[in-house]
């Protein structure tokens, strides 16, 4: 392939491969970022709604159950200042301690067995409680991440 046409074709093919590879990597990264933003937005909206419910002393447990009932991948628990459980939907869950020590509002991700979770923690005032409570949200993102494997 010593002809000019052959060399130009090869050069063009390599350039197209590089551009397409860069586009694929950029698309992958942007898609991952998009899912992280959506997950953060979902959990931040729930934290805001939980805060509004906790600020009103009228039947917070029932209202929290209604708020969180339609999200099968979202688990929520509210802890008192001493770490004891005040509320959990659908059931209590464990979060690695190192994530609970991260700054409030920071999105974190961990894997437990075959499931990957993203989590968020927020301290919220609660009517009738002297100390704020801690809302911990855990979202199963295994389906999201299956697109990137």
Question: How is this fold's topology laid out?
Answer:
Layout: H1 4-55, H2 60-68, E1 74-79, E2 85-89, H3 97-100, E3 108-112, E4 115-124, E5 133-140, H4 142-145
Antiparallel strand pairs: 1-2, 1-5, 3-4, 4-5
Helix pairs in contact: 1-2
Catalogue the unreliable spans: none
Largest sheet: 5 strands, antiparallel
Proportion in β-strands: 15-25%
Q: Treating each run of at least 4 consecutive H or I residues as one helix, how many helices?
A: 4
**SSE class:** alpha+beta
State the helical fraction.
40-55%
Record field, number of beta strands: 5
By CATH's scheme, which homologous superfamily applies?
A: PAS domain
Span between termini = 38 Å
Assign the CATH class: Alpha Beta
Q: Give the averaged pLDDT, no decimals.
A: 90
What is the CATH fold-level name? Beta-Lactamase
The domain count comes to 1
Query: So what's the overall shape?
Result: elongated
Radius of gyration: 23 Å
Architecture (CATH level 2) name: 2-Layer Sandwich
Task: Spell the H/E element sequence.
Answer: HHEEHEEEH
Largest beta sheet: strand ordering: 2-1-5-4-3
Could you explain the architecture of this structure?
The chain is an alpha+beta fold and 149 residues long. The protein has a single domain, classed as PAS domain (Beta-Lactamase). The chain has four helices and five strands; from the N terminus they run ααββαβββα. The protein has helices at 4-55, 60-68, 97-100, 142-145; strands at residues 74-79, 85-89, 108-112, 115-124, 133-140. Strands 2-1-5-4-3 form a five-stranded antiparallel β-sheet.
């Amino acid at each position: 392939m010593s002809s000019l046409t052959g060399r130009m074709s090869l050069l063009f093919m390599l350039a197209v491969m590089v551009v397409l590879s860069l586009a694929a990597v950029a698309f992958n990264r942007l898609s991952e970022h998009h899912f992280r933003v959506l997950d953060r937005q979902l959990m931040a909206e729930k934290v805001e709604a939980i805060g509004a419910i906790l600020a009103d002393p009228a039947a917070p447990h029932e209202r929290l159950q209604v708020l969180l009932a339609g999200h099968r991948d979202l688990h929520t628990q509210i802890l008192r200042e001493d770490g004891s459980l005040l509320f959990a939907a659908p059931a209590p869950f464990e979060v690695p301690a190192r994530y609970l020590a991260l700054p409030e509002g920071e999105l974190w991700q961990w894997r437990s067995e075959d499931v990957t979770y993203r989590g968020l923690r927020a301290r919220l005032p609660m009517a009738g409680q002297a100390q704020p409570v801690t809302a911990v949200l855990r979202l199963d993102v295994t389906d999201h991440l299956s697109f990137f494997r």
